[in-house]
Amino acid sequence: MQSKFLIIHLAFFLSFNLCQAQDFVRTSDLFRRSDDNSRSGRLNIIQDQAIDTLISRYILYSKNLRGVDGNIGMNGWRIQIYSSSSRDAREESAKVRAEFISKFPDIISYSVFDAPGYYKIRAGDFRTKTDATKYLLRVRRVYPNAYLVPDIINFPDVKRK
After folding, report:
1. How far apart (Å, rounded) are the C-alpha atoms in residues 74 and 62?
2. CA terminus-to-terminus distance, the chain
3. Could you tell me which residues are beta bridge partners of residue 77?
4. Options 3.40.50.300, 3.30.230.10, 3.40.50.2000, 3.30.70.1070; which CATH number does 73-154 get?
5. How far apart are CA 155 and CA 161, in angstroms?
6. What is the pLDDT of residue 146?
């Protein structure tokens, strides 16, 4: 009898912890200053609580974005230069990528496999479509069928610029 009671309480406790609400982010917490400067002013935000809910959802969504290589990323653009599902698409995509790397060493490239059997080569980590278009014009001189695709990109390197 006691073992049933213990098992029921243990199951209740575990399910309670698993079903606990996600972290809720308030807009006022995002703009809070950590330094305690007496000369700084106060920011008082008066808004509907639904806005805080939307901000929390966006933050949770952004935490789960994963790029091609499995790293956490962000929404952005890439240039797709190759896509095929033929029998030798794997070898052909490797050749196209090696050729791309030799011709454009300053643009990073990625091999992507999409089910049911598409091998793709995508290049670049561009935050905006405008940035991607600049490079697309250069790439199209060599790969005339290249085009822009929205993708999850790696975060830009801060030290690079």
Report:
1. 7
2. 68
3. 126, 150
4. 3.30.70.1070
5. 13
6. 94
| Angle subtended at Cα 151 by Cα 85 and Cα 83, rounded to the nearest 5 degrees | 15
Q: Is 130 helix (H, G, I), strand (E, B) or coil?
A: helix
Write out residues in the chain with pLDDT < 50, as ranges. none
pLDDT reported for residue 68: 59
Task: Look at the pTM and tell me if it is higher than 0.70.
Answer: no
Q: What 8-state DSSP symbol labels residue 93? A: H
Q: Which helix (H) or strand (E) holds 10?
A: helix 2-18
Which residues, 6 or more positions from 52, have their beta carbon under 8 angstroms from its beta carbon?
Answer: 24, 25, 26, 27
Neighbours of 97 (CB within 10 A): 19
Helix (H, G, I), strand (E, B) or coil at 46: coil
| CA-to-CA separations, 27 to 23, 81, 82, in angstroms, rounded | 13, 41, 43
- In terms of Cα–Cα distance, which of 70, 121, 125, 74 is closest to 100? 121
**Residue 103: what are its φ and ψ, rounded to 5°?**
-85, -30
* Residue whose token pair is 């106060």: 42
Strand-by-strand arrangement of the 118-126 sheet: 109-114, 118-126, 73-84, 147-154
